[in-house]
Design brief:
Strand order of the largest sheet of chain A: 2-1-3-4-5
Order of helices and strands of chain A: HHHHEHEHEEEHEHEHEHEEHE
Largest sheet of chain A: 5 strands, parallel
Structural class of chain A: alpha/beta
Low-confidence stretches of chain A: none
CATH class of the largest domain in chain A: Alpha Beta
Mean pLDDT of chain A: 92
Number of helices of chain A: 11
Largest interface: A-B, 52 and 53 residues
Radius of gyration of chain A: 27 Å
Shape of chain A: elongated
Number of domains of chain A: 3
Helix content of chain A: 40-55%
CATH architecture of the largest domain in chain A: 3-Layer(aba) Sandwich
Oligomer: homodimer
Strand content of chain A: 5-15%
CATH topology of the largest domain in chain A: Rossmann fold
Chain lengths: 349, 349
Amino acid sequence: MLQIKRPSIVDVAELAKVSKQTVSRVINESPNVSEKTRQRVLQAIEALGFRRSELARNFSQGRTHSLGVVGRDLNYFGTRTYIGIARQAEALGYSLLLKELPESGIEQIEPMLNALLDRHVDGILWAVPEIADNHAWLDSGLLARIPVPMVFLSMAPRQEATVVAYDNFAGGELATRYLLDCGRKHIGHIAGPQEWWDASERQRGWETTLQQAGMKVLPEHVAMGNWDAASGEAAFHRLLASYPALDAVFVANDKMALGVLLAAHEKGLRIPEDLAVIGFDDITESAYFHPPLTTIFQDKAALGQQAVKTLAHRIEQKFQPAVQHVLESTPLTHQLIVRKTTPAGVIKT
Amino acid sequence: MLQIKRPSIVDVAELAKVSKQTVSRVINESPNVSEKTRQRVLQAIEALGFRRSELARNFSQGRTHSLGVVGRDLNYFGTRTYIGIARQAEALGYSLLLKELPESGIEQIEPMLNALLDRHVDGILWAVPEIADNHAWLDSGLLARIPVPMVFLSMAPRQEATVVAYDNFAGGELATRYLLDCGRKHIGHIAGPQEWWDASERQRGWETTLQQAGMKVLPEHVAMGNWDAASGEAAFHRLLASYPALDAVFVANDKMALGVLLAAHEKGLRIPEDLAVIGFDDITESAYFHPPLTTIFQDKAALGQQAVKTLAHRIEQKFQPAVQHVLESTPLTHQLIVRKTTPAGVIKT
DNA sequence: ACACCAACTGTTACCGGTAACAATAAATAT
DNA sequence: ATATTTATTGTTACCGGTAACAGTTGGTGT
């Protein structure tokens, strides 16, 4: 059961009868190696099955070609986002070191960041949704003490931080304007938890659009849920009670919209005739809701991708300030997906 | 913009006027340090804000206290599973290095494993669903050349491999037996893709249960989907055409069940009176389907947790063969969640 | 008072690469 | 033919810890 030691650069050097530095040059494709020795070294590498230890290389260079990703639950930050992150990181030659921030939270933040820094990640991607003041630590000066570039996913813009995010305000506008285009006059909103930045932005988009259309927006025109289908159902009952004239509702995410559809059925409301519904997210199931849900789509994979690109860009700048790196950016804009919970034959303005 | 160098163990040693070895002893809580020097060292650590470089430690020890996780899409392997993995890894002091195996697949496997080994992960968790022969590489002898413990998530048992999985066969039995208990006589199945191990196991559970109940199982009693809601809808139409007597259906996952519900509505079938439906997975939305879906639950978080425990156990065995490590295992059993797509008042046998 | 042991601390080497600089050999200029 | 480049290769130090072994000190037994 003897574990055979991985061959090291020295083993290769001995076999090829060169110094280990020359081997290093070969594996790093330095041009200053004669073709003859290069071949000899390559042969030795082949013969021994040598592979460079990234661990050793990382240690010696002081950089690890890896990104720390701090997430919460993945649920929010989302499978699609994660795929975008993973693919882009791979494409740019970075590994991902993942950490889950537990609910409890605040006092875990510094240890978590330290754990990543102790492993010398080249950069950190903060993929925790902004809820209440859980980003308040940014004001504590902690950020300034972090010696690697950091990028934040989907949070309110801040002076000191690099943020990659969708404009949820615009998304809310888009949804609400479409309901107006449908000719609806009483457009309610089922919001996500107010403490969530994304939720309050969507709500602000709804509110602003209605006001610009000359409509009054009253507190009883909104009900709040917690993103879950169950809460959407409950919120809809409350909303209908406080706003009986309701003829359309913009729901802050598709899951809650599912609950709304169920509740509306129970109340005997016809959709979309009596009530138009528009969701947010375009989860894969929403095309199979009953009826299929009109919703707002945001390309989460592109979001993750863009975040990694941005982070990598800042890292390269740091390690090779001389070289001009290009940052190609993907536009992040919402898309309206019209299905059956809004009336047919609407002309979009 | 000068980057201040992280203090190293040597800086601490100088400040505390001891050798760096003594500092090492202090941070590793060796008992052989006098209280007086310990305090002096701790003070120096505090003063400098020293933190041990895990990178250096990993390098010097030849182990990284990290697990390589190879996944596909997360979609399948699932958010819940991932949470279980992350939490358990954190609890046991392991970091996670994540890799995404692209669809293309096979020829990517060896490079991917090598990438992990180059970074000296202590163990590898293979979280790619078994589809068709995508696990055939296990027979190539590659596995034997991997110098670290490896654990496979949810695949067919194999001689040479450590597998942590739910018994999907038993899950299929559980679902089907319940439909029998409901008094149904014509129980069809909407299967996942046959190439998926999980799917074929669930189907086998269905088939076996019916046969044991003395019923005939014909090919036209099954239709196959691809896990998506859309495919569930289509499959149901086909199934109904080929098996008109159908009075119950076991659907291999909840998403397809969603499509089935939609299709059944279109056909004017009452649920559960005309058709009983049972899904699989218990995704959060299924409680809000129309009507709420009866389904089979498996605790995916426990699955991920168990996989990490198993892997960690094997790693510890390897690094400290002398110590007897205990492996506490969580039982992985399915649970029947009865909602409204099956008739009320059934006595479970 | 002397040998011996325990408790504590220090020395040296090593993990596997890379960086910076030095040395040698071959090629070109004068 | 000699000085000077240029191309190629080797030497040495270093990254920040840990392991193995070697001292040093003080207390104890006789």
